[in-house]
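Before relying on records like the one below, remember that each one covers exactly one chain. Contacts with other chains, cofactors or solvent are not represented anywhere in the record.
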Amino acid sequence: MTTTTMTRFGATSTTDEVLAGIDLTGRRILVTGVSAGLGVETARALAAHGASVVGTARDLDKARAATAGIPGLELIELDLASLASVRAAADALNAAGDQFDVVIANAGVMATPFGKTADGFETQFGTNHLGHFVFINRIASLIRDGGRLVNLASAGHRFADVDLEDPNFETTPYEPFLAYGRSKTANVLFVVEFDRRHKGRGVRAAAVHPGGIATELGRHLSPEAMQALVDDLTAEHEAGAPAFEFKTIPQGAATSVWAAAIAPAEEVGGRYCEDCHVAAPSEVGGTISGGVRAYAIDPERAKALWAKSEEMVGETF
């Protein structure tokens, strides 16, 4: 990875600004969720700087249309809400045997109505965490020594810690953002334990909060739910938090490419990043404030989630 002198980037930096002057020729990078939004922009920016990009999508026709302008992009089918699809995609990649320098786990869903994946998991935990958990662990040997994993999390992790006793909301009343928060905390904890397990061969993992972006991720929000969210953000601002502003998609994808190709590995390994820097632990502020909750980076909690995840998917890594 590039270890040039660090330029200070921030909340308004774009993918092109972060990658300015960087040559990724010879790098092979996998990005999940390239049919819209951040995934498309991440793939575009990396390819524009010479990387060979493999993208995954549940709907390949939609992905082909969305990525038509990205030269050399290879697409593979991956439905994170189906472990059969996850395992088939991983098996195909392992059979080909081509290694990756970086895997960017970008795909996800947010604030969905209550539902279950093909395997009976609550939709958000099953898609955002368990699907990637199985997929990434199955292809972990394809990540080149010295490579990286970038896992998209969210400031939404502040909504909730994981619930290892009731991950599928069998006894807990379902709330869309509570479930989203659990799944995003799981994304951070997965990084903590994956990094611990793989750093011996130089593979480091980072969690990334892209910021608030108006993408298809919000398609499940009713006008009432969106207004309630805006009201909450306004109240946080009035309580002293900075005013909330949506990022553009190139700004939202900037931290992903920064963590993948710019930041020193030892700086981001096992950490939670936002606005192109490593976030500090913070127990104050609301859902849009900077920083990461201590429960999301607790190494013992990360080990417990790993064990629970293995139990749920019936597979040991």
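The first strand starts at residue 28 and ends at 32.
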